[in-house]
Amino acid sequence: MKRLWVSVVIALCATLFMFYQNGAIAEKSKEVKKAEVKADRNVGTQPGEKKEPVKSEGSDGAVTIQVDKPSLDNGGEITITGTAPAGKPVYLEVWTDKKVRASRFDAEVDKETGKRPYILYMTYEMPAYYKIFVPKDHKDTLARIRKEGKKWSFSKALKAVGADAVYSAPAKAKIDRYQATLMGSIIGSRGDLLSAMDDKENKKRSMQLVKARFRSPDKVLGPEVEVNPDGAYKAVLKIRHGLAPGKYSIVAAVDKNTRSRPVTFENNITFPNVYLGNAGTSLNLFGPFFLTLAISIFGVLMGAGGGFIMNPLLVSLWPLPHTVVAGTVMPTVLFSQGSGIYNYSKIKFINWKLGIAIGLAMVVGGFIGPKLTELITLDQFKFVFGWILIVLAALMFWQTTPGYIAKNKKEQAILKEFKKKAEEAARAKAGAAGATEGRA
Q1: Is residue 410 in some structural domain?
Q2: How many Cβ atoms are within 10 Å of 253's Cβ, its own excluded?
Q3: In a domain, 89, yes or no
Q4: Are 207 and 154 in contact, with CB atoms under 8 Å apart?
Q5: Domain end: 269, 298, 320, which one?
Q6: 413 lies in a domain?
């Protein structure tokens, strides 16, 4: 019973540390409150009174835009209305001020040279949320893009729906590029930093990073804008749960030079929802907590800490980048491993010579692994991890079959020694308890 409570405490500490390491618990900040008060003043209302739409228009008055509410609580629906020149399509570009990292390793064969470039593109200024809402008559076009599967191209999709001219926010992100080598990529080296790109090339690479970050065309394009012949338009935008908190900007545009000024709204999240800064998403605290609790108990039982189980589950159940999951699980496993080391040392199940030898190899692997995660995609991560688990599961199952154990005397000796030590530890514990009661 005592060990059960120790496991519960360890799991709680591991979960809280995971969220602290990735971002503080996101409550409504003072800046958010100030923004709401400012919005109230802009529309001439006082707190508690009915709010009027927040309006904005372009410098020439050609495109106007307004939102029906200044804030949302962990997502929801927000209605956008406005006017544009008659007969023109209207596009809504939406992004958040929160920034995250995005990377793409270009190792595809160049069609002109026939060589692999081995260039890593990386930015720390990708909006945590970005989407362009297009006219509803492009619904069939977007359906065809979805059918392309993993081969879809964001740049081609923008041209297909006519939104390439209004694409703006991610194109301004500063992108670094590194020249890697085949051997360097194997050991996880970024390579040499190359010179900065011009605006045109930077915009092109930013589109590739948008796809690498958001992966699905539905996350960056949506047919929601209804445009009338007189130029009036309306769109009901569905902002899903689990997005970043803070200020979101919306711009209405018909082409590169005809745009409205941005209008903003706030997305607020409160406990038990938390925001993970380097993942660019928020989630409910209780789900990962109870998952970690169960995995911690099982993982320590298996002598593995639980990380090999937490990695695929966190990636599959929540919209978390595999790089963030891999980095986050490392310190959390430390808690369960620490408790396991203490308990296994008490019953003398640890061989320190072998443990130190293996630990030195882990030091080297721990240096290479974090760098290597930058150079692989989520699909590659799932593929490799999945096969490793399948092979290990098959191997462990085979080694527990009666036929294998009967033929392997070493396995039998290990099982006998394990049972002997477990019985000795139990007798010693019972004797200590009896001695304590006798003195009392």
Answers
A1: no
A2: 25
A3: yes
A4: yes
A5: 269
A6: no
Length of the chain: 440
Tens of pLDDT along the chain (440 residues)?
444 454 445 445 545 544 444 444 443 443 434 444 344 434 334 444 445 566 666 555 689 999 999 999 999 999 999 999 999 999 999 999 999 999 998 988 888 888 888 899 999 999 999 999 999 999 999 999 999 998 999 999 999 999 998 999 999 999 999 998 766 665 666 789 999 999 999 999 999 999 999 999 999 999 999 999 999 999 999 999 999 999 999 999 999 889 999 999 999 999 899 998 888 889 888 888 888 778 777 665 555 556 667 777 787 788 787 777 777 777 776 776 677 777 777 767 677 777 777 777 777 776 666 666 666 666 777 777 777 778 877 877 776 777 776 666 666 676 677 778 778 877 887 777 766 666 66
- Give yes or no: residues 233 and 290 share one domain: no
Domain with residue 206: its CATH number is: 2.60.40.1930
Please give the structure tokens belonging to residue 328.
Answer: 């986050």
pTM of the model: 0.69
Say whether both 287 and 316 belong to one domain: yes
435 within domain boundaries = no
261 and 329 share one domain = no
**CA-CA-CA-CA torsion for 133, 235, 244, 271, nearest 10 degrees?**
-160
**DSSP 3-state assignment of 265?**
strand
Q: Between β-strands 221-227 and 130-135, what pairing exists: parallel, antiparallel or unpaired? A: parallel
Structural domain boundaries, residue 294: 2-24+275-399
Q: Which residues pair with 274 in a beta bridge?
A: 283
Half-sphere exposure of residue 19: CA atoms within 13 angstroms, side-chain side? 23
Give the whole-angstrom CA distance, residue 155 versus residue 204: 8
Joined tokens for residue 224: 């929601």
- Answer with the one of 368, 384, 399 that is the final residue of a domain: 399
**Are 266 and 69 contacting, i.e. CB atoms less than 8 angstroms apart?**
no
d(CA 266, CA 250): 11
